[in-house]
Structures
1.
Amino acid sequence: MKAARFYDRGDIRIEEIEEPVAAAGEVLIKVAWCGICGTDLHEYLDGPIFCPTHDTPHPISGETAPVTMGHEFSGVVEALGEGVDDLEVGDHVVVEPYIIRDDVNTGPDSKDYHLSQDMNFIGLGGRGGGLSEKVAVKRRWVHKISKDIPLDQAAVIEPLTVGYHAVDRAGGVKEGDLALVGGAGPIGLLTGAVLRAQGATVVISELSELRRKKAIEAGAADYAFSPAEVDVVEEVKKLSKDGKGADLSFECTSVQVVLDTLLDATRPTGKIVIVSIWGKPATVDMHKIVMKELDVRGTIAYVNNHPDTIKLVESGKLDLAPFITGKIMVDDLIEKGFDTLINHNETAVKILATTDPERLNS
């Protein structure tokens, strides 16, 4: 079968590999669509990061490069391994793409399996990936979805769940809360969409005019301000019910000035969630945190959030179609996918890839 394989930094190849089979406790999925993630771009430009090297196997998967890429994917159940009796061939599914040690508690009450030692992701650390025709996944990580949800939109559920978990880390949303999102990249937009679906009024701060426009059109924000044109802190305070600022703020850029803005724009006793991955240390004005009794929290990926995120999408409160800005064949992954997202990313939110020309043309 066809698959996109990570060999090394700047070296991803589309090649033929053997089809997987469903071992005991596994589900064989025929992939419909797979999104290109910022993490995939980082691997291509700066990696290997999550991907193993040619001579250093991942401690859980045991695999070395090359590995199949793709962790944001949807598909159709094609076969069931021994012992899997609660799914059927033909079911539509998405995957919570974790690679986690067998002795870690991943039950429904766990709140920390995503923080376990050597955690990695299907499509980065091994065990196949969504940028291929088929993938075999442990039953624990496979989530059934309604066939009313188009499979292209279903491929956006994985990054949407990152936003859902970020909102969950903030303690959830109360009707009428004012939320500020710093940055209108894919995760910032999807976090905004979750916030609005849960009843918050959302303000996005973003320099790019095209991204601000997308935030409003896609339903990710009620207001979108440019910090180059207005005083975002003052605009947020004007919109707040008592002039004190945002109830919740989400940092989605890893940019110092955005973090500084959030510290000033968040109301006393408010919460700030750091969603972005920072490649360098930040400077934090601790006095502001102390004097406003701010609650600053980190968030990474998701933990038992997929079921609730899927319910949110199935409820119809959130439309994922506007976030899909391109569809390509896996053969064109670099030229039409990576290159667009690296060099022309103001207009691209989520580009999906498939190995099936019929899906691309339907």
2.
Amino acid sequence: MTPSLPTLPYAVERATAMSRAAGVGGVVLALLAASLPFWGESSWMREFVEIACYFIFAMMWNLLAGYGGMVSIGQQAFFGFGGYVMLILGNFVGLNPFVAIPLGAVAAGLIAVPVSFVAFRLSGGYFAIGTWVIAEVFRLSFANVSAVGGGSGTTLTALRGIEKGTRESVTYWMALACVVAAIALVYLFLRSKRGLALLAIRDNEVAAESQGIPVARMKLAVYVVAAFGAGLAGALYFVGNLRISPDAAFSVNWTAFAIFMVVIGGIGRIEGPIVGAVIFWALNKFLSDYGTWYLLGLGLLAIVTTIFFKQGLWGFAQQRWGWSLFPTQRRLVLRESAVPKRAVPASPSSNTSHLEFHAHAKHQ
């Protein structure tokens, strides 16, 4: 008979009580949000679609820069490309624009492959500036195509036969689904072995490659995924906006606002773009009428956060109180049977003793 292996006195736990509660609360909140078109106002749905596009774009930028270590200020290239592909498929091919939204995202991911051959020849600050130049090339290219309106842009006419209420409701539901999918996919990716490999590449590429991690392939995969998400946000945004122009689609403000949200919330954390998007929406809602003062307020808030909260607002809360809605670290939990009788606390609710370890490669 094969001898049975001894039971280890500990187990690896990846969720916390707070993350479980957040999961249940997130499901309830998503179901409640899905019912908004039946009782809410159309202005609420339009606001949600706009901030959802900003959030998805910021989430992809955080994946690229916060986890992959590739700081880009030209991701608006894929945002605008996804929007234009959606418009071309809708206006000229006759495809339903709602079906064209994921196709625009796929096209943005595909175009990122040849673009990466140019961008990956650069590193550091040169990579950031190079991606901005690439975005400007995209903008000038579409500005010289008269079929899509040239520099003045054009209108999405493919939705002309759809009732306004139906159009707004479907756009809202697609935006909600894209937000949930973006959070879930990024979270599952970061909890996987590939997520650990990405963090190792961010910390030290040479050390990661020496451990057998395919650095070039991982960076290309993250770059393509981030481009796909940016294209999805762009296609979704211009379906809701009904009009597109090169200056609006390829504006550097998209990346600037994404960086603002990620820095305010906390770079390198899934919760960062969520917190940053809520703050950005609140500032945009109540202070945008003040014009220049509004932009000065955004800049001042970013400066104060980077000086006093270097890890972002959620990063500060996580370090101070241990909050984590989307934990990616592993926790080593002693089994109840492995704890001596005299070491068991008197409280009947205390069944385990926790020893927390961060999932860093050198600790494993």
